[in-house]
Amino acid sequence: MNKDNLTTSWGAPVGDNQNSMTAGSRGPTLIQDLHLLEKLAHFNRERVPERVVHAKGAGAHGYFEVTNDVTKYTKAKFLSEVGKRTPLFTRFSTVAGENGSADTVRDPRGFAVKFYTEEGNYDLVGNNTPVFFIRDAIKFPDFIHTQKRDPKTNLKNPTAVWDFWSLSPESLHQVTILMSDRGIPATYRHMNGYGSHTFKWVNAQGEAVWVKYHFKTEQGIKNLSTDVAAKFAGENPDYHTEELFNAIEKEDFPAWKVYVQVMPFEDANTYRYDPFDVTKVWSHKDYPLIEVGRMVLDRNPENYFAEVEQATFSPGAFVPGIEASPDKMLQGRLFAYADAHRYRVGVNHNHLPINRPLSAVHTNHRDGQMRFDSNGGGSINYEPNSFNGPSETPENKQTAFELSGFADSVSYDENDHYSQAGNLYRLLNEDERTRLVQNIVDAMKPVLKEEIKLKQIQHFYKADNEYGTRIAEGLGLAVHQEV
Description:
Layout: H1 34-44, E1 57-66, E2 85-94, E3 109-117, E4 120-127, H2 140-147, H3 158-166, H4 172-179, E5 193-194, E6 199-202, E7 208-217, H5 226-235, H6 239-249, E8 255-264, E9 289-299, H7 304-309, E10 322-323, H8 328-344, H9 419-427, H10 430-444, H11 450-463, H12 465-475
Antiparallel strand pairs: 1-2, 1-9, 2-3, 3-4, 5-7, 6-7, 6-10, 7-8, 8-9
Helix pairs in contact: 2-3, 3-11, 4-9, 10-12, 11-12
């Protein structure tokens, strides 16, 4: 087999890749050694800034196949007929850890899917949990600061974590999930995925409904105990990444059945929980799961950096028939995610092969770093224009919905932070409750201020008397009075 010649990035052959050019055997090194300068300069730039959250992850290619007719709910073309297949790319990740952190930590898992549809890319950027810790994006930077490293010690800070949660009671539902058995999935293949937010589906007649997405693993739910997870973290911190890659290599292709809950548009005004509050779920009795399709992952990336690290997902990447809801957390993410990619990967990140739509792209965007296509050539870059340039399509306008109230900084009207967390606790069997309580007790013991522990115990107690009492007993504290 003939070898390829080593070249510079501009295609010139390299004569010596073992020795730099120097003035004699002792040097100094000559600045005219352009191959050396290029190697070092490129090496210094081989790492794009890691994601602020979801830094550690794994991904795979696959497809989505429609298995049920949902055209009465949405006009999205990739959902238009049973049997239709759409290629996709999925990235799984931990949330708080850095790029080199262990896969098996107790943490939510990111569950992001990019559908390469004929109408453009549709990104569904969720987690393996149906709810989240907060419900307003203005709190997100503060929350993530508590999950990251302390600015003084550069260590994880349990006091900051529980201080924030104790002062943000809306977090209780997600905290309960996180500290339960599902806080550490056995693998990426053995966990469910959720869109978490509420979204709007619109059909061809312009009729709208509200939906929530559920990806149910066909492999079954499996989790790791705290002890086993810690063992894996020490012995193989890339366990989940390796397991997913090897399963696909062996053609043991993971799959998820995809469902939605559908809420009639007007029900949003009368439902007992605010349907746009991402800290709440909708009862399956009220809004049963409706099958949509099946996701299968059947191909590993050829290059991790090009496909997994440079993949960019945004909850604002919609296609006709799928729109945003007034969910305050989602509204903030519509901006924040795309803006993070403009910073991290570059303003032209959607031109990279892993992010490039399969459909034609006609925008008036020009220039910017790493614009590596024809940059629009000499075509018109404004609209409206008189030269038959790309123009808007009024039929794809987003549907209108009524707004009311004063422009103000306001919270959600509904502040029941306890009933769903309590219901979840009562659904657990005794062994599951015991592990949940022990996980919380162990996590709270390092908290430095007793006042923080007492505040948090009150939240558990309000969700369920037994729940709060058992945690208080585990910490050697009482719950007899409000803090």
